[in-house]
């Protein structure tokens, strides 16, 4: 029986090569899309699960609402971790990270810039699974000025992995002993460090300041410890350790602090949840989003359904060709179940053939998909058993789902009618097929509308007046590497002699991700600091050229002046800071803050610093447009980390060549690193850009598959109405009238799809836009455009089949009458 099924299936496969090819390709595209997304989802869900105790590791997070400024931090204070480890036996191990970004590494007299530096407690290897290749993890980071490095960096700088005992020179003259070499961290980790420097190297790690949050703290809890129950301990921490400092700093208790509408909460965040469920301030890198995992998983299901619907429509479109076969087989004794089994076998065979083609498509497109998804995704069909079983299940379900309706319909033909050539469809079959096409195009319209809304939002972000001009600004990074501060000034001044360099500013602070942030509390002069008048504010050190170089607008007062020595004790506030400090006519008034101990980051409450407000700058977005503008103060103080140059409309390569030549002349051993401000700004929306690219790809696939389905239905309609078309042509109908006749019912289906899809698309995209504080208006034009695009593609698809039917010689369709 099975042998006969296969024989007939292959015979029909080769007999109808065009329709078989379309069926296989349509299914293959759907399966390939589903497999690629399955690989992506599997990759996203695997983050941080390589740690042996990943289900018991938690990060301590801070949620602070103070002075109307609400921040959620991935970090907490230096003493938080050690105190929790000391007080609570449920904490088996604790470790902290203090990120330092990038450093210069010297090799053979020349410096190279490397990222991935972090200070870490020696207990990091007790909490996380970081396999050691050389050295002893228990002792690797116990002493100051020691470092453990990844195998990748060891081979890069020493040409071998066994480098324990060697010296690594950073920042030109800071020597550190290498005490361990570990396996390069996998890309499925929410952190990726190449250099772990001993926490004992920095004094800040030992401070007792509970109101400063600079350390990422992780706890390994004992088995059967409920994180919700352990979080209750933070109330004791707040009362015992934080309240005394709050009382000393502001003169209020924690209860009074909270009654004023402020709060300071601490929570545990599961390690396995960080990548897909966390977007806190201070993340090590941009995380993924469970929302997008759901979206793409849904797209995979829908695109696979579209492919199955195509199979149904193309199979039923060929029903007339196989009607007599069914009639003969039934006359010879075949029952309905046998015929249905035959057609299901053909469907499964096509599905497995489609899988082979799909795997070829996957291998071909996976590098492209990995690139636009920003992930290193690999195909592991045979090493990943759940993935292999999942793929096999998808193929079987797809084959059965796609073949169920055609099998039921074809096996239901009555032999007497089909052998006379007058077989009729059962009532409802035509309506079912039309419903499938409506479903296909409804999904397509939703996808296209989503793509257009995402594109509009990204255009809105790029074109919104953000309070500064980001175009034609290049930032030369690590300017301190030139040497003395005078050397940085001299480099800037020499560049300003070029006609295409319009202005320049020296600072470590720029309004995009990747540059310094510094948060301190300030209050108006003449008042004592209280919860009602103290504002947590960004403190940026800039020079007098900062505002003109970035083309910001001073709305009150003036900019800093190099001719005013007192401006070193001056500040320019943004509008939000003025509002939060409740200052009327702020120019000429002063704000205060406590002095800081720069050795360990502690607050020196015996000394206050006063700054006169000389100007107010219009609010500008220095964080993502997902967030409101927060209070910020610009201080006329030295910070020589980077030099930004605004250049005229000139050849960018020429600008970079001149900058690099001057840099190399002054610092031949130092790397020349630069970044364009507009590109750094765009990187803050890298996730949205990736989603846009993925949505574009999936939109094309969805439309392609939907058009194949429409092709099948129009082919079926043309075949069913062949004699009608022949008679109309004999009676004088032209091609245009036949085209209108054939297209009319399909245009009605597209209109129904439009009416169904628009409310769905509106609700979905309205929800997506809620993550942005600044967002585009969701007008009807986007949805109308998506409908028109779909309609145009549908007309083109139907027209091809209709014109083909209209050009057929009527003699061929009427000869049997």
TrEMBL record:
Give TM segment ranges: 21-41, 292-314, 348-369, 389-410, 431-454, 694-718, 746-766, 778-800
- Subcellular location, in the record's words? Cell membrane
Q: Which InterPro entries does the record cross-reference, listed alphabetically?
A: ABC3_permease_C, MacB_PCD, Macrolide_Exporter_MacB
**Coiled-coil regions, chain positions:** none
Membrane topology label: Multi-pass membrane protein
| Annotated ranges, domain ABC3 transporter permease C-terminal | 299-415, 697-799
One Pfam family of this protein, by short name?
A: MacB_PCD
Q: Which GO terms describe its cellular component?
A: plasma membrane
Q: Which GO terms describe its molecular function?
A: transmembrane transporter activity
Enumerate the UniProt keywords alphabetically: Cell membrane, Membrane, Transmembrane, Transmembrane helix
**Domain MacB-like periplasmic core: residue ranges:** 21-234, 445-621
Name recorded for this polypeptide: ABC transporter permease
